[in-house]
Amino acid sequence: MADPRSSETERAYLRRYRQLKARARTALAGRFTTDAFVGFLCESIRPGLSPASWRQYRAAALVGLRNDLAHEPRAAQQLDAALHRLAATPPALISNREPRTSQQKAKRLSNSDIDRIRQHLATTRSANRQALDDYLLAASVAALRPAEWPSAQWRTCTLPSLRWELVVVNAKNSHGRSHGPTRTLRFAEIESGIVRAITSWIVTAARAAADGTYQRLLKTLGGMLRKLGRRAFPRRRRRPTLYTPRHEAAARWKARYVQAAANNPQLQELGRATVAALLGHATDETASRHYARPRRGESGSDLPVPTADPAEIARVRRQFSASLERRSAKTLHPPA
């Protein structure tokens, strides 16, 4: 079966794998072997990582080791043993360790937080100041993954009572990780400033992607945001990243579609499917578990909340039902 990861994700994993190997070679000081490398990951790196971070490190190492296996068949026995050991190693038990980088990333960014960041941004002289300003507002409204912006289409909507729509190519549409190749976010009347920010940022992203500088642009904007976060929120442990607006938007959408239907299980199910469709997820489970939760009593903000395409909501509900059936079957009839 083909690797379910996209080629871009696999390249990122291989880069991380090479970084981990270089780190292990330095730490092992001439005693580097495949078995020692996996031991270093499991015994020295894993205890200091959160469960989510360990899963990312492990996934990168597994991709790298499988790649080595494809190119070094004579080392198959050693690589197979390393793969089995690594795949079977769970995350470390959570302790009172110091927070790692992933634990310092904020998942919430309120309107007042965005305003404070934009105030600090206005005082900088960076050539990318306007690009980051546009990105923060556009991402807070539409919640696209950073990689999805260059190909997004922002246009007027012809449906009754709706004014704008954003058509997005889902970045993780492989082996059931998304509900389909694209998703559509539709809006009623929204402020001209938001329309301008979304339009401007899509143009900026598309141009950068066309000349091959988009990843560099994202890295630059991410670095600017980290510095602005330190200036704007010097006492906070968690700082905003380019993904933070997506988490914040997901929380607002859950407040609108799920939390507001707390006393109606049917409407809650529909609400979770709606949020998943808007985020580009295959099922409503991912949005429920891994994205920021709405604050207690949260009623939303003055930012517009999009509606999802009914056909995409229906696909999410079908895929989620099928997933539940498969899990039930495994529970009732576990494999030998």
What does this structure look like?
The protein is mainly alpha-helical and 336 residues long. It has two domains: 7-103, no CATH class; 105-326, hpI Integrase, Chain A, CATH 1.10.443. The chain contains twelve helices and four strands; from the N terminus they run ααααααβββαααααβα. It has a four-stranded antiparallel beta sheet with strand order 1-2-3-4. A hairpin with a 7-residue loop joins strand 1 (153-156) and strand 2. Helix 9 runs antiparallel to helix 10. The radius of gyration is 22 Å and the shape is globular.
In terms of topology, how is this protein built?
Blueprint: H1 7-28, H2 34-45, H3 51-71, H4 76-87, H5 111-121, H6 129-142, E1 153-156, E2 164-169, E3 182-187, H7 192-210, H8 214-232, H9 244-257, H10 265-279, H11 284-290, E4 307-308, H12 310-332
Briefly say what this structure is:
With 336 residues, the protein is mainly alpha-helical. It folds into 2 domains: 7-103, no CATH class; 105-326, Orthogonal Bundle (hpI Integrase, Chain A), CATH 1.10.443.
